[in-house]
Amino acid sequence: MNIPNTLTIFRILLIPAFIVTYFQVPEEYFYVPAVILVASGLTDVADGYIARHFNQITPLGRFLDPVADKLTMASVITCLAITHFPLRWLFGIYFVKEITLALIGLWMLKSWRNSIPAKWYGKTTTALLYALMFIVLIFPGISDQVLGWMIIPPIAFIILSFIFYLKEIKKHKN
Q1: Into how many domains does the chain fold?
Q2: Distance between alpha carbon 168 and the CA centroid of its chain, in Å?
Q3: Whether this model's pTM surpasses 0.85
Q4: Which of 33, 53, 93, 146 could, after both became Cys, cross-link 22 (CB 3.0–4.6 A)?
Q5: What's the 3-state SS for 33-70?
Q6: CATH for 133
Q7: What string of pLDDT tens digits covers the 174 residues of the chain?
């Protein structure tokens, strides 16, 4: 088990910690889930950097890293959508995209070894989602109207990345 894979597993273990703290910490400790989210994001950046720059890319890491990404995003978006109505739109669009891509990927690619690596539009979408989620965590009383406007860029990039990844899957299959 190398360092990047260990960091990825740690990131997966942060998911239940985030969920528990999001729903259980007293209101005056609202920043605790935000700190966990930042730790998860930094761990994601660190494991990718270490894997690439120190030639520690492994088949396990190529499989686990995107799984950790998807589980983290799904968990955080779900938690926030429960307490912030406008995020239910983001939740719905995100889940449709992820489930559709996963099913198409399984059907067409037949193997996680043939998976398509992250592209700039996927990374931009992830960055926008992390920024939005962090802001919502730091400002838990944010109005629905402001939040409704704030979800537009992440939703646009979710849709854009969905279209681009569909094109990549089609190209990869051919």
Answers
A1: 1
A2: 19
A3: yes
A4: 33
A5: HHHHHHHHHHHHHHHHHHHHHCCCCCHHHHHHHHHHHH
A6: 1.20.120.1760
A7: 899 999 999 999 999 999 999 999 998 898 999 999 999 999 999 999 999 999 999 988 988 998 899 999 999 999 999 999 999 999 999 999 999 988 887 776 565 555 666 788 888 998 999 999 999 999 989 999 999 999 999 999 999 999 998 888 778 766
